[in-house]
Write a structure and sequence with these properties.
The complex is a heterotrimer of chains A (271), B (329) and C (307). Chain B is an all-alpha fold and 329 residues long. Chain B is 78% helix and 0% strand. The chains are: A alpha/beta (271), B mainly alpha (329), C alpha/beta (307).
Chain lengths: 271, 329, 307
């Protein structure tokens, strides 16, 4: 459709109060609709701050953070929520809440304060629950779920929003291999089959390199590299950014991602 | 949905029963036939005075104050994401108590008895202003943790002021002040009903309209923002409107504890955490609870009365504990 | 001019339906409110023990409808208790159809007085602290009960008792007296309290006469510095401390009054109820402050309660 990117940053900067250095410094990037973009970088490199700025949670100190061509901070929040589903890093559920209740909250942006859920809303919730393999767990209380199930429920809530764009901040941080893979597979399927745009923050460079079409590498608030996987996951670049000796080897396969660059950090005494 | 309707009906029946009990029963032992007669416009002057000037306004105050306290408790628990939050957590009661105790100790109350609720209200408003000013000055946005801390600190400060005032109080003022702080509905008049209704009815409607936003805020502020909520606006409305509801309730009947803490939890255990149900159900359950507690306070030691706060705690806590044992919270 | 007034007055009286003798009873209470009764009060609810006692003496037990938990008089035991006098059931009081309620003018404005008045129930709010106020209270209750003569004789009897006590202690050295409402924290009777007046009549000086508060909380250090000649401890409900305990308490045990055995316990009910028994209180105090005086029995001057 349009050539307007989903997200765009122009000379974007942001500093927290009382901070010595800016958290985000002069960032330029564009994330096209339909792409699978992963933001990587060391702890404290500004990944989460970048996401918050692109989602309009904070106004930029200078420059622009745009969503679909207009200032992200200026978007009507409900309108934005109908277009972008977000899975934040953590959520603490204090009061008893069932899986279905949580997923159904994804319909709120479409309902406003008073309108009751209709057939279309129930269908969207059912579909999201099925997509995230949560059927059978619907009535379970959130605080009785495993970490993987809980994360899938939160992704289901974002899907129930029926957004064109999904933003996820370290969605697989505390998950085992199988659960982590399931989530990456799910996201890849959404991008390939439904044309959903995915923007995710992750520490898993290797999976990012195998699934994403576009990578952004942040280092101390600056974009150290961005573009195709091959351009970003390059030994010298990654070693400098992470300050650790490592090897980069092509993924041996099998699969469609055979040949994707894979990072293997080295033990100190061997280098 | 049909389970919801059944439960709503059960609550309505309970509410009606509590109201009938509150108006029909009392220390004076007016026969129920006479009560009905009075409500229909008959009855002798004494029966009319007892039912229409004493019991009815008192029951309405119980409904509005009990409902308002429970509703505020539910809103505070959601906004602060803390099951321990209760209506007095932001120092509102402390401010109200300073206003009332000052009025009592400095003798204002002796010459203008109706000034005490107004002084309590003024004290509560001062507390709210102070807490919000502190919380907003520290951070740009309304930081929940700072707000909670500011509330606790301001409450501690007001507590010290109350103790200072009581040190200089004569014996009678001391007694009056302590009794005021215990909370009682015995002073309820039609004037109290009007004062409460003017604020509580629109405030209740406004808080009900925030139910979906509160569902989201109970999970987290970022989650709420990304699901389309104007977080700062909802927080401001929630804290201010609920705090003012507490201020008005405390001005009308002193500090009545436990309703705002226990009732929302009890409703949550039975009906879940959806604020579209939780808020109205908490209001009605709070009304029922205070109606029954006050009826007990009026009749158990008749012709003396017990402080209603004693009943709310003595009955509320075991009730709550038994619910807690049966639920998964 | 004078003649004209007399004529006008006479006309005014004649224009009344009722004869002059049944004209309404009017009294101003201690809160400045005017109380008007069509006839002497027959159903009285008193929520102040001293005033209850006065009503009993002037009008008889049968005029009382209720008592408080503080009224220990066996003659009143059969009456329902409105509790601690601060939180009675207003609707019960209304249901009793009293023609006079006597209450303390409490300070929170939420008390019975403000609820009963709008309902047309006469409330006499009574605040008594000085000796003069006792007489005034008795006189006015006499009017409200239609027993002015009995009130008058009670007032005169009390005055006579006090005069005899004053005469007995006249010319003697006036000991300083610490009347300790509580010992921890120390709380003393001020000079302007009823207790202060009783001590004064009994030939003593209150230790903290210089303080304006009624019951100032004072420091133990200051008590030690001032060295009272006599310590009086009220014993009863809601009071603390005992003469024996003081001998062991640091600070207190160093007081001359404690070492010399000049610590006395008195009945709190007698000393905290400004009313008909003030003369007995004064005699009791005098016998403690001036030991050679005879211990007191119930004085003959006290009128017997009406049966």
């Amino acid at each position: 459709m349009s050539t307007t990117p989903a997200f765009e940053a122009r000379s974007l900067s942001y500093a927290y109060e009382h901070a010595h250095a800016p958290a985000i410094c002069d960032v330029d990037l564009a994330i096209a609709h339909g792409s699978f973009c992963a933001v990587i970088g060391p702890n404290g490199s500004g990944k989460s701050t970048l996401i918050r700025l692109l989602l309009g949670a904070e106004p930029p100190a200078s420059g622009d953070a745009l969503f679909e061509g207009s200032s992200a901070h200026g978007w009507d929040r409900a309108e934005l929520a109908r277009r972008v589903g977000v899975v934040t890093q953590t959520e603490e559920i204090v009061f008893p809440l069932s899986v279905r209740e949580l997923v159904a909250m994804g319909r709120y942006p479409h309902l406003g304060a008073y309108r009751r859920e209709g057939a279309a809303d129930h269908a969207a919730v059912d579909a999201a629950i099925a997509t995230c393999s949560l059927s059978g767990l619907e009535a379970r209380a959130m605080n009785t779920l495993s970490g993987g199930e809980r994360q899938r429920a939160r992704i289901a809530r974002a899907l129930a929003q029926q957004p064109r764009t999904l933003v996820l901040d370290e969605p697989t941080a505390a998950l085992d291999v199988a659960h982590e893979m399931a989530i990456f597979e799910l996201l890849a399927k959404l991008v390939a089959n439904d044309g959903v745009t995915v923007l995710m923050v992750t520490h898993n460079i290797n999976l990012a390199a195998r699934y994403a079409s576009h990578l952004v590498l942040l280092e101390r608030g600056l974009v150290a590299a961005q573009g195709s996987v091959a351009a970003v996951v390059e030994r010298g670049r990654i070693e400098t950014t992470y300050q650790w000796p490592l090897l980069v080897q092509p993924f041996a396969g099998p699969g469609p991602d055979t040949g994707a660059p894979q990072v293997a950090p080295l033990r100190k005494e061997e280098s | 949905m049909s389970a919801l309707v059944t439960r709503a009906l059960a609550l309505a029946v309970l509410f009606a029963a509590a109201l009938v009990l509150a108006v029909g029963v009392g220390a004076a032992g007016v026969p129920i036939a006479t009560v009905i007669d009075v409500l229909a416009g008959g009855g002798d002057a004494t029966a009319r005075a007892i039912v229409l000037d004493l019991r009815l306004p008192r029951a309405l105050v119980a409904i509005l104050a009990g409902g308002g306290l429970a509703l505020s408790g539910a809103v505070f628990q959601a906004l602060l994401r803390n099951p321990l939050a209760e209506p007095y957590v932001l120092g509102v009661a402390g401010g109200a108590a300073v206003g009332a105790v000052a009025g009592v100790v400095f003798g204002v109350a002796r010459f203008a008895p109706s000034a005490v609720p107004l002084l309590a209200l003024a004290g509560a408003l001062a507390a709210i202003t102070l807490v919000f000013t502190v919380a907003r000055r520290v951070g740009r946005a309304l930081d929940t943790r700072v707000l909670l801390l500011a509330g606790v600190v301001v409450a501690a400060f007001f507590n010290a002021v109350i103790l200072l005032l009581l040190t200089y109080a004569d014996v009678e003022s001391f007694r009056s002040a302590v009794f005021w702080m215990m909370g009682s509905l015995s002073g309820s008049t039609w004037g109290t009903v009007v004062l409460l209704a003017i604020y509580m009815i629109p405030a209740t409607a406004l808080l009900f309209s925030q139910a979906r936003s509160l569902n989201l805020l109970a999970i987290g502020e970022d989650t709420a923002l990304y699901l389309g909520t104007r977080v700062e606006r909802v927080k401001l409305i929630g804290y201010l409107v609920a705090s003012l509801a507490v201020a008005v309730a405390v001005a009308a009947c002193g500090v009545i504890g436990f309703i705002g803490l226990i009732v929302p939890h009890a409703v949550r255990m039975v009906w879940g955490s959806d604020h579209r149900v939780l808020l109205p159900a908490s209001f009605v359950a709070g009304s029922i609870f205070l109606l029954l507690a006050d009826t007990a306070a009026r009749t158990i030691a008749s012709p003396a009365e017990l402080p209603v706060g004693v009943i709310t705690a003595l009955v509320g806590v075991p009730l709550f504990v038994s619910l807690l044992r049966r639920s998964s919270l | 001019m004078a003649a004209l007034s007399v004529v006008l007055l006479t006309t005014a009286c004649w224009s009344e339906d009722r004869p002059l003798i049944n004209s309404p009873i009017t009294v101003t209470d201690d809160a400045g409110q005017v109380i008007t009764l069509a006839a002497p009060a027959r159903r009285v609810i008193s929520m102040i023990p001293a005033q209850t006692e006065v009503v009993k003496i002037l009008g008889g037990v049968e005029r009382l409808v209720a008592r408080t938990q503080w009224d220990k008089d066996p003659a009143l035991a059969h009456l329902p208790s409105t509790g601690n006098a601060l939180t009675p059931s207003v609707e019960w009081i209304v249901g009793q159809k009293p023609d006079l309620v006597i209450a303390w003018p409490d300070n929170d404005g939420r008390n019975v007085i403000n609820q009963l008045r709008p309902l047309g129930i006469p409330v006499y709010s009574s605040r008594v602290e000085s000796l003069a106020e006792i007489s005034s209270m008795i006189t006015r209750l006499g009017v409200l009960l239609g027993e002015p003569a009995r009130a008058d004789s009670l007032v005169r009897a009390i005055d006579a008792q006090l005069d005899s006590v004053r005469a007995a202690v006249a010319g003697r050295a006036r000991p300083t007296v610490l009347y300790a409402l509580s010992t921890d924290p120390p709380m003393a009777a001020g000079a302007s309290t009823f207790v202060g007046a009783v001590i004064d009549a009994a030939g003593g000086t209150t230790l903290f006469a210089d303080m304006t508060q009624l019951w100032p909380q004072v420091s133990l250090e200051e008590i030690v510095r001032r060295q009272p000649d006599v310590i009086i401890l009220p014993v009863g409900e809601a009071t603390s401390g005992s003469a024996v305990a003081l001998r062991k308490l640091p600070g207190w045990r160093d007081l001359d009054a404690v070492k010399n055995g000049r610590v006395y316990e008195v009945d709190a009910d007698l000393f905290h109820r400004p009313g008909a028994t003030v003369g007995i209180a004064a005699r009791t105090a005098a016998s403690l402050l001036h030991p050679p005086l005879q211990a007191v029995r119930r004085p003959a001057l006290q009128p017997e309660a009406k049966r």
